[in-house]
């Protein structure tokens, strides 16, 4: 008699897809108390429309270059995003499909001579789509209240450091009036003028951190030292997370700023976003640069705060760094380059098909499609041996270390004759890989056994850094 079993040490986690109440407020001019020279430093979005769609998969498995699936954690504590950017278009009812977007409010931040309207919406819409948009958002499982401070009045694609500082002041005031929600400020743009430091902006960002708001800023797209550009230069301060852009090969995107001010890297080359002109399932635009990288990192920060609302900004930064994955390609300019990770609950069953995502990934199945389940294992007696046949995902298996997977997970085959006492069968058994096809490698595991009955099971153990 032979039987097989699968076991993980943790249970089932369900993913809920997330109403977005759209309101637009044209605010009165903010009191101009800033120094004129500091108020007029040009600021522009960090990102350009390009092509591809790999980034979310890399957030789940930083070192797995072939991974294209993404599983997000489902969290329960509401959090708030201050998106300081262009305006945001609701793209019809697209964002409303995410039921975890609990509210949306937009305010136009303008100086005394600025227009009372704004038509600039593309960049902010893309950034929100990367944080919480259907199909492209990294924090789809997290209840988020969004406040959009539009600092691009009129039709110009550039803004100023003064408007940015004004928007941060508004976020601080709003946070003080609603302290129950833990908050993240996302600033996915910056100055392309080196040396343009402004104490006013630095003070506003530091005040936000002191008020308990985590601040995520983009490093900038000049291919230089982030310390020379605002707001990336302030990344050396605790609780201010400065984000550089990584490329498809986990190296540094050539245009990304680097240096000691950069805390983390995140996908920034050809990152899939909402297609504003055609918001439909499967229809995408693509963004490159440190803008999408910072938006994805802001999503990861929101997830951390929803999991643990007691975290300070400094602790959020530490949590992101601790969970980050080392890049595949290290550079001289960033020898400790780390890639932001959004780690799903280890027992998530994303498609609710009754099979854990970890096992679906191990067997090379599709954890996002309930109609696709792993090919069943088969067991047989052959010449005094118990022989187990099964598939392993080809992007995880490494012949050089067959029981250590590419994502750092380990696995073993265990054997028992009574379902009580188990022994590690990998110490006496032999593993024979077949030829890879369709994303899987057929495996045969044979172990000597002459008992009247035998039970075999496969255990998959997550790497130590996994939650």
TrEMBL record:
Q: Which domain of life, per UniProt? A: Bacteria
Instruction: Tell me the active site.
Output: 85, 123, 291
> InterPro entries given for it?
Peptidase_S8/S53_dom, Peptidase_S8/S53_dom_sf, Peptidase_S8_subtilisin-like
Statement: the UniProt record of this protein carries the keyword Protease: yes
**Gene3D superfamilies given in the database record:** Peptidase S8/S53 domain
Keyword terms, alphabetized: Hydrolase, Protease, Serine protease
Coiled-coil features, chain-numbered ranges = none
Question: Key word Protease present in the record?
Answer: yes
Domain called Peptidase S8/S53: residue spans: 83-331
- Its family? Belongs to the peptidase S8 family.
Q: What is the name of this protein?
A: S8 family serine peptidase
Q: Which organism is it from?
A: Luteolibacter arcticus
């Amino acid at each position: 008699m032979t039987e097989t079993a699968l076991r993980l040490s943790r249970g089932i986690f369900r993913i809920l897809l997330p109403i977005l109440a759209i309101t637009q407020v044209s605010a009165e001019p903010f009191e101009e108390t800033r120094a004129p020279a500091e108020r007029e430093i040009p600021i522009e979005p960090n990102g350009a429309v390009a092509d591809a769609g790999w980034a979310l998969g890399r957030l789940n498995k930083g070192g797995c270059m072939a991974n294209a699936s993404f599983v997000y954690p489902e969290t329960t504590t509401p959090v708030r995003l201050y998106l300081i950017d262009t305006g945001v278009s609701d793209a019809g009812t697209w964002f409303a499909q995410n039921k975890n977007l609990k509210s949306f409010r937009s305010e136009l931040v303008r100086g005394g001579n600025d227009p009372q309207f704004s038509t600039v919406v593309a960049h902010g819409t893309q950034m929100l789509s990367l944080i919480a948009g259907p199909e492209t958002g990294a924090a789809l499982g997290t209840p988020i209240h969004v406040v959009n401070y539009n600092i691009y009045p009129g039709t110009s694609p550039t803004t100023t450091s003064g408007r940015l500082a004004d928007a941060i002041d508004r976020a601080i005031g709003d946070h003080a009036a609603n302290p129950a929600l833990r908050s993240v400020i996302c600033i996915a743009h910056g100055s392309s003028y080196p040396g343009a430091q402004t104490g006013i902006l630095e003070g506003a960002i530091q005040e936000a951190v002191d008020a308990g708001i985590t601040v995520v800023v983009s490093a900038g797209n000049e291919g230089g030292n982030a310390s020379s550009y605002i707001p990336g230069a302030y990344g050396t301060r605790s609780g201010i997370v400065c984000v550089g852009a990584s490329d498809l090969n986990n190296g540094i995107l050539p245009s990304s700023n680097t240096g000691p001010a950069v805390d983390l890297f995140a996908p920034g080359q050809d990152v899939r976003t909402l297609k504003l002109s055609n918001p439909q399932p499967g229809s995408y635009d693509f963004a490159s640069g440190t803008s999408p990288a910072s938006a994805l990192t802001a999503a990861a920060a929101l997830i951390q705060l929803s999991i643990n609302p007691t975290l300070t900004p400094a602790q959020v930064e530490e949590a992101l760094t601790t969970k980050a994955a080392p890049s595949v390609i290290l550079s001289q300019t960033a020898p400790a380059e780390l890639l932001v990770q959004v780690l799903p609950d280890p027992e998530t069953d994303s498609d609710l098909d009754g099979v854990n995502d970890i096992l679906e990934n191990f067997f090379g199945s599709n954890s996002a499609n309930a109609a696709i389940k792993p090919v069943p294992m088969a067991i047989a007696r052959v010449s005094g041996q118990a022989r187990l046949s099964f598939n392993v995902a080809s992007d995880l298996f490494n012949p050089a270390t067959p029981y250590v997977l590419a994502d750092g997970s380990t696995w073993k085959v265990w054997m028992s004759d009574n379902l009580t006492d188990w022994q590690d069968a990998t110490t006496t058994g032999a593993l024979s890989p077949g030829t890879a096809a369709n994303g899987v490698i057929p495996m045969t595991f044979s172990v000597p056994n002459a008992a009247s009955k035998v039970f075999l099971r496969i255990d998959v153990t997550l790497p130590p850094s996994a939650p």
